[in-house]
Amino acid sequence: xxxxxxxxxxxxxxxxxxxxxxxxxxxxxxxxxxxxxxxxxxxxxxxxxxxxxxxxxxxxxxxxxxxxxxxxxxxxxx
Length: 78
Known about the structure:
By secondary structure, this protein is an alpha+beta fold.
């Protein structure tokens, strides 16, 4: 069993997450969230949310889900 097969078997949903930011004036640090983009790796469905859409509320029921971050330090801090 490959790692991908294992996580697909164990998790109900597997999301890849990327968050787009406006940077500070130096261009080196994320400042404000612009949008969130999720791709369900099992179904290939893509979901896009702006900052105003459900900000502060989970976008999905994440029970038994795996979220893979593009850049975890930025995504987890948003």
